[in-house]
Fold each of these.
Amino acid sequence: MPLTILVVDDDLGTRLSISDYLELSGYIVITADDGQKALEIVFEYHPDLIVTDIVMPRMNGYELVRQVRQKPAFRLLPVILLTARIKTQERILGYQSGCDLYLPKPFELEELAAAIRNLLERSQIMKLEYGFSHQENPGNSGFKVADSHHYVNHLEKSEVLSSFSSREQEVLELLTHGLSNAQMGNQLHLSPRTVEKYVSSLLRKTETSNRAELVRFAITQGLVK
């Protein structure tokens, strides 16, 4: 059965371009033009992932994510924030609100689709693991324990910054701005293949499993400016 994605943006052109692309990719897409309407849709239709803008009428993206995360049923729900705001503090607000990925505008639809596939795959695995854990310990939330343990481990790894080469630090900084391998390569005068090698090295050193986790770790741990 196709997975369902909720696309939230007050700009009609953006909603249509994203929803058309995702529908062609095989997803079921529901759209909303403000945060309040999106929240109602989440509670009614239980989508598998949310893609939302930040600046919207009635309820902005930050508040939408916070309200979604308050419901235990949606703590595993992947959320991607889309915005033209690229300042570090604003990205931190996004992650603090509970988003999984912060993607700055303008963005390539292909890149968005790749991020969606990545988050959905991880979400499905986490749901399965949570289900098994919950069956074995019905009085305890396995997800909360695992999630807490995961981030405690990350907090203990802030010293990894000292193990980064100067080039890896440059790649990490650009990565947090949502640049593709080609875009980073143009700025650093490297080939996309070489950039990918640096990204792989960063994933290994930080013990993160994908770019979304790497960016979130880098920002929350203050590894980038």
Amino acid sequence: MTIFIDDRPIHLKGAKQATRLQDEAAANQLEYDLIIDARLDGLKLNALKGHLLVLNATPGTVEKLVSLLNNYNVSELNSVTLVAVEKKAVEEKFKSLFKVVKAAGGVVFKGDKMLLIFRRGKWDLPKGKLDDGESSRVAAVREVEEETGVKAALEHRICTTWHTYTLNGSRILKRTKWYQMACLDDSQMTPQTDEDIDRIEWMDAKKTALAMTNSFSSIRFVIDSVNEQVNG
């Protein structure tokens, strides 16, 4: 599980990965700037720099981390990897600290080109919140058509992302399920301007990679997941 808090990746690893990560860390094979053991050192503000690995993370570690991220400027922090023996308990603690909103989105292909939207100054992918009683699969197709005018056929699940934002003073954790789709009809393609979408474009791999330099970490995560599935 990876949660993007203010576009910064927080990776959560479970017990099965803990031994391997600890062995690699001991052999200096991991590219972390700092490695701490939550049971020995706890989590302090001065540790939030570069790429941080936290071993033996607990629900308390998560609560402390989120508090530090919410209340202090941690601009030098690039990522955090939490290794937890009780991964599910840590996941549940993460979710309990935010209001969870469910959403779905699509990565639509037309031949070898991908559909991207330009919204609020960033390149993005079409997505939106689920309606009451709606499944993620149905919502993903609906949101693609509403935001872009493109009719698409759902193919398969790609991944799930979690990212945070603030709305009316509340901290929101949005869970988005992503699906790969094939374009059926783009003759009515037009941006949904009332959702602040300015442009829509079909992009080949080279243009997509360039667009991702002006996007969000969570969207790059989705694109990377698509590329891994295609190449893998």
